[in-house]
Amino acid sequence: MRGLYLVLLTVLLCYDHALSLRCYFYASYRTTDHYQIRHCGGGSNVCYKGDLVMNLTNGEQTKLHHGACARSCKEASETMQLAANLVQNPLISTIEVQGLSCCERDLCNGVTRAGRSLWAIAGGFLLSLGPTLLWALL
């Protein structure tokens, strides 16, 4: 009976984590550098990603890729615009937000997309059936 109480206590303690949205968090010049997966709290409902495009005074252009979570897509847009407005550097002539997209699933603001081949899907399907087939044989 104590085991049941322990399991129930564990479920209750992890309940908030289990229901919270998970998003990729990053701010990098290359989207594959320095990203983290975090549980979003505080009523966050969307993951977002977008670029801060910086036009330099020497005519060059650079992009800062950014991803995180927010309560709404409107809040994500405001956050990106605020970040653009806060950067004050004499080498940067203008900063604009581009390519902002929002989504409502775990890790949907992904930093990279894996290739989806028919063989990979078939292999994943067969691997997922493995425990079931093993259970049926026992």
Task: Kindly report the average pLDDT value.
Answer: 79
Q: CATH superfamily name of one domain?
A: CD59
Can you count the helices? 3
**The first-level CATH class name of one domain:** Mainly Beta
Rg from alpha-carbon coordinates: 21 Å
For the biggest sheet, the summary is: 5 strands, antiparallel
Helix fraction by DSSP (H/I, runs of at least 4): 25-40%
Name the CATH architecture of one domain.
Answer: Ribbon
Shape verdict: elongated
Order of helices and strands: HEEEEHEH
Q: What fold name stands as the CATH topology of one domain?
A: CD59
Task: Report the strand count.
Answer: 5
* Spatial sequence of strands, sheet with the most strands: 2-1-4-3-5
Distance between the ends: 28 Å
- Report the uncertain regions: 4-17
User: What portion of the residues fall into strands of 2 or more residues?
Assistant: 25-35%
From the helix content, strand content and strand pairing, which structural class follows?
alpha+beta
Structural summary, described in words:
The chain has 138 residues and is α+β, with helices and mostly antiparallel strands. It has a domain at 21-112: Ribbon (CD59), CATH 2.10.60.10. It contains three helices and five strands; from the N terminus they run H-E-E-E-E-H-E-H. A five-stranded antiparallel beta sheet has the order 2-1-4-3-5, covered by helices on one side. Strand 3 (46-56) and strand 4 form a beta hairpin.
